[in-house]
Predict the structure.
Amino acid sequence: GGRYKIAVLPGDGIGTEIVQVGVAMLEAAARRFDFALHFEEAPIGGAAIDATGEPLPAATLEQCKASDAVFLGAVGGPQWDALPSDKRPEKALLGLRAGLGLFANLRPARILPQLVAASALKPEVVEGVDILVVRELTGGLYFGIPKGIFPEKKGGRRGVNTMSYSTFEIERIGRVAFEAARGRRGKLCSVDKANVLEVSQLWREVIVGLAPEYPDVELTHMYVDNCAMQLVRQPRQFDTIVTENMFGDILSDEAAMLTGSIGMLPSASLGSGGPGLYEPVHGSAPDIAGQDKANPLAQVLSGAMLLRHSLRQSEAAQAVEKAVQTVLEQGYRTGDIAAPGAHIVGCRAMGERLLAAFEG
Ligand code: NAD
Ligand code: IPM
Ligand code: MN
């Protein structure tokens, strides 16, 4: 049972290609597990700029608010790069995250056994990696004020962004991270730059203050530069990582490569009760867009997260994840996760293989 409304925002570049595969998998999951999905597509990013002049049209945001979950591809592309930051496709993502109050971004980097050889790192380094990056998503350097490009009195200009967090913002992302760690292996590493930044000193103080409420979680701290290094040196030391918005953006792309390709990494963005947003961690990949080369698995796995977190259809989520493992087991690979002896397929063919594995 159950009827759900899903806002589908394909966006730009490979976004449209991978979302088709993702939606087909969600439809298959609904058929098999007997619930109803109603998909409504809306423009976002460059596509929305071209159609309406705005990267995030008000109607798109309203439609998302009225949905049970939002399923997004990716936005951006070179044709919109010269626009001022307010008018750029990327602004739509920030507007959507802020507009829906999605302060917690979960980015699980788990290496599937079938892909150990596809990683750029040695198999003995990446084997067994299972990390959850909890990225704060509506504060920090992306949103702090003052921000802008300002004229200087003595001539020239100054570009400004501000990394700022309130105790309230740190506490609520901290709680999400402690809870997540509790449901995993009970280890939480808070990543900051407290040796230099006051904002990080407050971050650390507030996180430390929460720890007594989670005695079953082992809390550690790490500076962000060291974390970037440790992630490739010995990634298995990490379980759950919690960090500031931009630190999390950078570290999660790095963590993605542990799993073989950024084309494998899904994400869930959650707030307090409203619809969640599900999108791959990667971007619109203009270098391969329109060539049927994109890896749709991050999108499909984001669909599994949607089923689990927003629709509470955990069996369906597991079945989708299992289909992903099955196609990899069968040796099907897009170019980014190619392996010797594999069947290299395009985005669409990968989608067909997934459906066959799911229904077979
Ligand atoms: P990107 O993630 O789009 O691409 C980086 C590299 O990874 C490229 O070589 C690309 O071909 C490859 N890649 C990414 N996803 C892939 C997939 N599914 N299958 C195979 N290969 C894949 O990052 P970028 O090149 O820095 O940015 C391109 C555009 O995307 C920019 O406009 C950027 O602002 C935007 N962007 C959007 C999002 C988002 O919508 N969430 C995220 C990151 C970047
Ligand atoms: C991501 C992207 C976005 C971010 C950009 C495109 C705004 O890189 O989702 O990781 O920095 O959050
Ligand atoms: Mn990013």
